[in-house]
Amino acid sequence: MDKKFSEMNYYEMLDIRPDANAAQIRAAYNYALQMYQADSLVSYSFFSQDERREILALLDKAYATLINEHEREKYNQELARNGILDVMEKSAQVKKEPVNIFDISKHKDFFAARRTDAADLKMKIEKNERIRDILGRSVLTGADLKDMRTQLGVTLEKIHQETKIRLDYLRNIEDDKTEKLPAAVFLKGFIKAYLRSLCLEPADELAARYMNSLPGKN
Q1: Contact 198, 154 (CB under 8 A)
Q2: What does the pLDDT look like over 18-42, one tens digit per residue?
């Protein structure tokens, strides 16, 4: 799970099983485009403009290869020679359906409500001694994040709605279930988005403190 995006194979990039059909490939590709487009709510937390451009190019290449039957067969043969396809197929027997990292949905009046919430959250942070104490620590854990969120009176469901990060990932982060966390390339962005949704700054620095506490994730 600790691969960089460019190190993933095409199936991993689109988060689909090796036996995915054409319709599933198209759906996964369109879903990925939503995730990495410039106006995505959390896209800016993950990557720079250049990194996003590179990822979109890789997604285009992955889609063009997998949607073409002949090119896909050649690619599968290459994965098989490297012993990758067999491992993926065995894993797919347990994972019945492809699971996307994000849960994309539409929410009306998001930005207007967000501005009001932000002002309220910043005031609460300024007045809350416990939150200021946690923010001053050199290392942050999922439990610390949960503590601050609870102090601010924000539900995990609200963060899920704002960031589009799946609820089970948010719960695993707060419960420090490191074995169930996504790859570092995604996790760091998740943490930044989580912090920004709570108006906890500087998000980059705080996310780094969290990542540094996770062996193999930073």
Answers
A1: yes
A2: 989 988 898 888 777 767 765 555 5
Per the CB < 8 A criterion, the answer to whether 141 and 213 are in contact is yes
**Residue 203's CATH number:** 1.10.260.40
Single pTM value for the model:
0.55
Say if residue 152's pLDDT is above 70: yes
User: In this structure, is residue 99 part of a structural domain?
Assistant: no
CA-closest candidate to residue 55, choices 196, 72, 63: 63
Contact predicate 20/11, CB 8 Å: yes
User: Is 198:160 a contact under the CB 8 Å cutoff?
Assistant: no
d(CA 128, CA 96): 45
Cβ atoms within 10 A of the Cβ of 201, count?
Answer: 13
- Looking at the fold, whether 78 and 117 belong to one and the same domain comes out as no
CA-to-CA distance for 173 and 150, rounded, in angstroms? 14
Q: Is the domain of 16 the same as that of 48?
A: yes
Indicate the residue among 29, 61, 94 that finishes a domain: 94
pLDDT digits (tens, 9 = 90+) for 40-94: 555 555 567 787 788 889 999 999 999 999 999 999 999 998 888 775 654 544 3
The domain containing residue 185 runs over which residues? 110-212
**Which residues on adjacent β-strands are paired with residue 165?**
102
Per-residue pLDDT at 168 exceeds 50 = yes
Counting every residue, how long is the chain?
218
User: If you write DSSP's letter for every residue of 112-129 in order, what string do you get?
Assistant: HHHHHHHHHHHHHHHH-H
